[in-house]
Amino acid sequence: MNFREHFVPRGQHRIYAREYAGAEPVVILMHGFPDNLHLYDRLVPFLLPSRRVVTFDFLGWGSSDKPLGYPYTAANQEGDLDTVLKELNLGHVVLVAHDASGPPAINWALGHPDQVAALVLLNTYYCAMPTLRPPEAIFLFSTLLVRSIARPISGMFGHLIFRRMYWWQIGRDGYLLDSGDYNRLRSQERANPNMLRLPE
After folding, report:
1. According to the 3-state scheme, what is the secondary structure of the chain?
2. 18 in Cβ contact with 54 (< 8 Å)
3. Taking Cα atoms as reference points, which of 134, 132, 102 lies closest to residue 120?
4. Which in 32, 120, 121, 197 has the greatest CB count within 10 A?
5. In the Cβ-directed half-sphere of 91, how many Cα atoms lie within 13 Å?
6. Do residues 5 and 18 lie in contact, with contact meaning Cβ atoms separated by under 8 Å?
7. What is the mean pLDDT of each run of 10 residues along the chain (200 residues)?
8. HSE of 133 in the Cβ direction (CA atoms, 13 Å)?
9. Is 59 in contact with 10 (CB distance < 8 Å)?
10. pTM of the predicted model, to two decimals?
C-alpha cells in the first residue's frame, strides 16, 4: 500500500500523518489510548482504493512529537484533528473514532457539521459514566502513583511488559479485523444501504 507521509505542524510540534489515495469523501481513522495509527493497518486495505484514507498519530503517540508537560486533553486532540484536516486541505470527511478519540471527534463534528459526511464511533464514550473503566494498560501506565512504579520497571525489561499487555488487550478486545469480521461487515452493509461501502 502506497501512502504519502506528512509531518503536520501544530505550533512548535509535529503530527505524523499518512494519506492514501482514493475517492472522496476522505475517511479519517483516529486511534484511541494507548494506540497509534497502526491500529488500522489491517483495515486500510479494505477501504482502498474506493476511499481516500488519512490516519494520524495524536501528539504524544506513535511517530508524532511527544512534548513534555503538554496537556493531552480531548480539547487538544480536537485541535490535532482540526490541524490535520486544515493542513491537508480536506473537505467532506468521514470521521472514524475509536476509544479516547470519540470525544474530540464528536466535538469537532458538532462544530463543523457542514464538513462531516459521516461520524463512526467505535467502542468509545462521550462523558463520565459510572461504569466506565479504563483498560488495564491505561490504568497501569497512566495512573499517577501506579505509573511511577510501572514505567521504570517496564523500562528495565525494554518495555516488554507494556508491549505484552497492549497486544493482550488488542487481541482480547478484538480490535483487529479478520476475515470473519470482514464477512460480518459485508452482511451489514448489504442490509443497510446508508452504511459506508467496503471495497469488493
Report:
1. CCCEEEEEEECCEEEEEEEECCCCCEEEEECCCCCCHHHHCCCHHHHCCCCCEEEECCCCCCCCCCCCCCCCCHHHHHHHHHHHHHHCCCCCEEEEEEHHHHHHHHHHHHHCHHHEEEEEEECCCCCCCCCCCCCHHHHHHHCHHHHHHHHHHHHHCCCHHHHHHHHHHHHHHCCCCCHHHHHHHHHHHHHCCCCCCCCC
2. yes
3. 102
4. 32
5. 4
6. yes
7. 95 97 96 90 92 96 91 93 97 94 95 96 79 68 78 82 67 48 54 45
8. 3
9. yes
10. 0.69
**pLDDT for the residue 60:** 92
**Could you give the CA distance from residue 62 to residue 81 in angstroms, rounded to a whole number?**
15
d(CA 77, CA 179): 32
| Residue 104 cell numbers, joined | 474530540
The C-alpha cell of 84 is what? 490535520
Q: Are 4 and 54 contacting, i.e. CB atoms less than 8 angstroms apart? A: no
Which amino acid would we find at residue 140? L
Q: Strand 13-20 to strand 53-56: parallel, antiparallel, or no bridges (unpaired)? A: antiparallel
Residue located via cell numbers 442490509: 191
Distance CA 124, CA 122 (A): 6
List the grid coordinates of 29: 481513522
Are the CB atoms for 16 and 62 separated by under 8 Å? yes
